[in-house]
Amino acid sequence: MRYTEKDIRNIPLTEFMAALGEKPVKSFEDMKLYYAPQRDDPEPMLVVNTSTNKWYDHATDQTGDIIDLAALKMNPTLYMNPHDFILKYMNEYEQGKELSAMVRRPQQPTIINLDIKKVKLTDFMKALGQEHPVAADGNLRIYNAPYDANPGPTMVINTETNLWRDTKSGAYGGIYDLAYELTGSCNMSELNRYISSEMSVLEKSKDKEQNTEPDKQEQEPDKPQRKMRL
After folding, report:
1. Which of 48, 67, 107, 192 is 20 to 30 A from 133, comparing alpha carbons?
2. Nearest-5° Cα angle at 1, 77 to 95
């Protein structure tokens, strides 16, 4: 699942707290008690009402919804809009749950016959659904950032060095750094599995296209018929 702007007000606060790394200390009926995520308190002071999807802070006497809590938690130098902060954390949280489910799911052992360090970032972007860059300038290719909650043309790939940089966030690196931005995982095995699965889907689609194309056999031109001599 990928959250968008229209989903924000329907996101359960308990899920948002989990995305922030917070677990309830106590629960009683519709109330859950947490440590306030925006402070380092010695005691749990934040109460979430699951029926109203609102929170109340006993330390400050403040109350509000998910957007109000995000505004208190986010770093204003990194985020100008609490909506962006919520979408980033919630989508990374959902991706993490999906990866965990994949790991727990019984699977046949697979052998990764792929030298991931040699995978071209432009090919990886094709695997992510971006067949062509938004723009190109010499050896630079500009793409919509696939890890951004509001994707814009901020991701630049250098085809010579096979490295990328985000002009908005300043994030940069190689294919593993890009996979980390997409999954939020630092586990090398999970990153290898993620990259390989995306690339295998691309290769399968290429094979399918080749198999569906009709064989073009060159037809020999008709030989001129010999005329009978009388």
Report:
1. 192
2. 60
